[in-house]
Amino acid sequence: MSILQICEWIGNTSVSVGIRESIWTYPIIESLHSVGIALFIGLLLIWLTASGVTRPINSVAEMLKKERAGRERPSIIAAE
């Protein structure tokens, strides 16, 4: 079987035909898929924050905030 034949077979299954011919099935599946991706990314960010992976990023952000306020020069720039 070629890839084209496999794709045609999948496209002709009852599930594929039902999704293709229904007005609401595809938009509902697509919406659930988008919500699932958003939940996955959100939980991944929460997990990374809880495990301390984002600590270096937060320290760089704090350094940039202090630089913007004019209180401290970043240590990577040589003093004049």
List keywords for this structure.
0% strand
Short description:
The protein is 72% helix and 0% strand. It has helices at 3-11, 14-21, 25-50, 55-69.
Describe this protein's structure.
The model has no long low-confidence stretch (mean pLDDT 85). This protein is 72% helix and 0% strand. The radius of gyration is 25 Å and the shape is elongated. The chain is mostly helical. The protein has a domain at 23-73. The chain contains four helices and no strands.
Low-confidence stretches: none
Q: How would a textbook summarize the main sheet?
A: none
Please report the distance between the alpha carbons of the first and last residues. Answer: 71 Å
Number of helices: 4
What order do the SSEs take from the amino end to the carboxyl end, as H and E? HHHH
Oligomer category:
single chain
Number of strands: 0
| Strand coverage percent | under 5%
Globular, elongated, flat, extended or rod-shaped: what is the shape? elongated
Q: Return the structural class.
A: mainly alpha
What does the average pLDDT come to?
85
Radius of gyration: 25 Å
Which range best describes the helical content: under 10%, 10-25%, 25-40%, 40-55%, 55-70% or over 70%?
over 70%
SSE layout and pairing:
Elements: H1 3-11, H2 14-21, H3 25-50, H4 55-69
